[in-house]
Design goal:
3-stranded mixed beta sheet; Lambda Exonuclease, Chain A; single chain; 5-stranded mixed beta sheet; globular; 325 residues; alpha/beta
């Protein structure tokens, strides 16, 4: 760790970076914007995020130059620059990015060529004018689509990289399962960039409020698991929820309804199973019923590695009537 920059990470931890834009815009599968806000507030308080790596990330780093070089070849361009060893800071926003690579364009217009794995993703054709940004991605997932990428796989990240670096075009170069390379080319999208600018400024406003007044302004929380990770260190105090009594009562009613429905569904299943007995399939009017087996392969005995003690907040509220123990 050097300063507030993690090893392997060029951008400051107390500032938004391009890789975090999908989280900011609600497009991430792994983190919510409130969790990101909490992480940044922790950094302000002197708590650095743990640097995490895995084999997939390690292979991604090793294969990155190969992915970028092959992508440049397919685009008919020269060798890309793959040694960007410093962060780039936005000229007007509290924002930074790092680059996997960049390549000089040849001024030519390129169109989708599926045989070469080239896709013009946000325009029918893209002019490779000036220097373009190359973002490398390695994934074990199947190809999501022949013509578009999900937003979390570098699409929003690339737009902010282009905006910060001053590029008019760029490409997300994705190697799927180590066997199929697809190069998704994007032109600069001013409308998308404007929305991200607005979101970045609002995020920074919330950070500044915390930094200056210790005041936290969360985004709307939509999931109990998210709430549990945000408010993860409760004080053993009591708060007045009188104004929420109807909601608490409704939660109890819904849980009772769900428990009753689960019991009803279980009894109905048992009745059908008693009829099917040794048959794997059945037909009931417009429905086909399948009762198959699940095969488990033999596995060797494993020694579970030791884990340090930890405390997490529960994802579900416990509710009981007062005076009932």
């Amino acid at each position: 760790m050097k300063g507030n920059v993690m090893v392997g990470k060029l951008t400051p931890n107390d500032q938004l970076s391009a890789s975090e834009v999908p989280v900011l815009m609600g497009a991430s599968r792994f983190m919510t914007v409130n969790q990101l806000l909490k992480q940044k507030m922790d950094v302000i308080s002197g708590i650095e995020p743990e640097f995490k790596s895995n084999e997939s990330m390690d292979w991604g780093n090793r294969l990155e130059p190969m992915i970028l070089n092959e992508s440049a070849v397919r685009l008919g361009l020269g060798n890309p620059k793959t040694n960007h060893d410093k962060p780039y800071f936005h000229e007007s926003l509290p924002f930074a990015c790092s680059l996997d690579g960049s390549v000089k364009g040849n001024g030519k217009t390129i169109m989708t060529d599926l045989d070469k794995g080239i896709v013009c993703a946000n325009a029918d054709e893209v002019v490779m004018e000036g220097e373009g940004i190359l973002e490398a991605k390695l994934t074990a997932h199947d190809i999501e689509s022949a013509t578009e990428l999900p937003l979390y796989r570098g699409v929003l990240q690339l737009q902010m990289q282009m905006d910060t670096y001053g590029a008019k075009w760029g490409a997300v170069c994705v190697l799927y399962k180590g066997t199929t390379l697809k190069v998704f080319i994007y032109q600069r999208d001013e409308e998308v960039i404007a929305k991200m600018h607005e979101a970045i400024l609002d995020f920074q406003r919330r950070l500044d409020k915390y930094k200056n007044n210790d005041e936290v302004e969360w985004y709307d929380i939509e999931d109990p698991k998210e709430a549990a990770t945000i408010f993860d260190e409760p004080e053993k105090t009591v708060t007045d929820l009188s104004h929420k009594s109807d909601m608490v009562k409704r939660i109890v009613e819904l849980r009772e309804m769900m428990a009753d429905l689960e019991e009803q569904e279980k009894k109905l299943q048992v009745d059908i199973m008693n009829e099917m007995r040794d048959h794997a399939y059945g037909v009931a009017g417009d429905y086909r019923v399948t009762w198959t087996t699940i095969n488990y392969k033999a596995t060797p005995e494993k020694v579970v590695p030791a884990r340090p003690a930890r405390t997490i907040r529960a994802h579900k509220l416990k509710i009981r009537e007062l005076g009932n123990g």
